[in-house]
Amino acid sequence: MRVLFTTQPAVGHFHPLVPLARALVDAGHTVAFATAPSFCPTVASAGFRAFPAGLDWLESEAERAFPELRGMASPVPYWAFAGVTAQRMVPDLLAFAESWRPDVLVHESAEFGAPVAAERLGLPHAMAGPPDLPMFERPDLLQRRFGAPLADLRRAHGLQPDPDLTALHRYLTLAAVPPRFLHDTAWVSPVTHFLRPVPFDRTGDEGLPAWVGELPPRPTVYATLGTVFNRTTAQGSGHGLFRAIIAGLRDEPANLVLTVGRNVDPARFGPQPPGVRVERYIPQTLLLPHCAAVIAHGGFNTVMAALDGGLPLVLLPLGADQPHNARRCAALGVGRILAPDARTPRAIREAVRAVLVDPAYRREAARLREELRTLPGPGVAVTLLERLVAEGAPQINRPGSAPLPAAETPVE
């Protein structure tokens, strides 16, 4: 089986696909990715063939491709995903398919070109990854957001109208999220299968610094604003929020490890006391086992990595899916939210103290961790994709149907 993945050019979109891609390779299948030319080296560093496709841009530098975003609160142009990026992606996917001959296309939920290209090619397609907008949004709400550009895209490629956007969920949706993390109003398609989110974050050469083992013997708090919102935030400057975190915790009886992103120089934050380390990037899968709590923007991958370690969170949502993720963490009792007008050093310090001292946060985080680990791993997704290619028909998730074989998750 030949599987062509498509992804927007950002690690937050790509990383969740890697465990499934590796499981497919381990099962003997051939895998490749199609993505923006500038993002291909990141895909290749994870060990996959990468086809340059579509608009050449990086989500972490979105304002270069979309100048109209300069000065906006959110650097993530969700409105563009169903528009220009999909328009540019489809022709390249059609061209690659002539020579590479995929059997199925798998796209992360913010990449809209693959379903159109697959329909043109007469191939099945699957949506995979974290619960981004299209995965659990009601069709009528999706229609308001994306209906017009997707209708134009289908029309441009000679496809029949899809007023209810059913084509997005026609065959298979592989949702790497625990069902309890979804909002009560989430819409779940009949072809949705829930999987265990498997943390992956090692597309660079970074490892675990030796100094982690030399930190003072007290709780370690990890802080991050992700790989896109780390530069520009709803407060105007990610650096201002970083400074508030440092100021709030530098005198606490705890260690602080703050990662500011590969594109930010830690030296701009000045010298720090022994218990505070400011770094560009450390793989969370290596660092979190040494931590007692996490301060984060609320990006899905960071939240799931923290919960996979049973760690409570302090959440500073900035945009995109982060406010929803933060609200779910608060509702489930695994974290606290700080609103934009309350992100002072004192408030950050008090929130961190609360999640470290109150055992209820860690208890609920541990409970959700156990729920995560009861979900099937990527091996089950491989079986579903194999069935999809063999049958060419929707993979309905029918209660009471024969269970798929369990599979172990690859360990990083």
Order of helices and strands: EHHEHEHHHEHEHHEEEHEEHEHEHEHHH
Number of domains: 2
- Quaternary status: single chain
Fourth-tier CATH superfamily name of the largest domain: Glycogen Phosphorylase B
What is the helical fraction, as a range of percent?
25-40%
Per CATH, what is the topology of the largest domain?
A: Rossmann fold
Using the 3D structure, state the CATH architecture of the largest domain. 3-Layer(aba) Sandwich
Q: Mean of residue pLDDT? A: 90
What does the largest sheet look like? 7 strands, parallel
CA(first)-CA(last) distance: 25 Å
Beta-strand content: 5-15%
Shape summary? globular
Individual helix count: 16
Structural class: alpha/beta
**How large is the radius of gyration?**
21 Å
**Overall number of strands:** 13
Q: Specify the CATH class of the largest domain.
A: Alpha Beta
Low-confidence stretches: 233-237, 405-412
Sequence of strands across the biggest β-sheet: 3-2-1-4-5-6-7
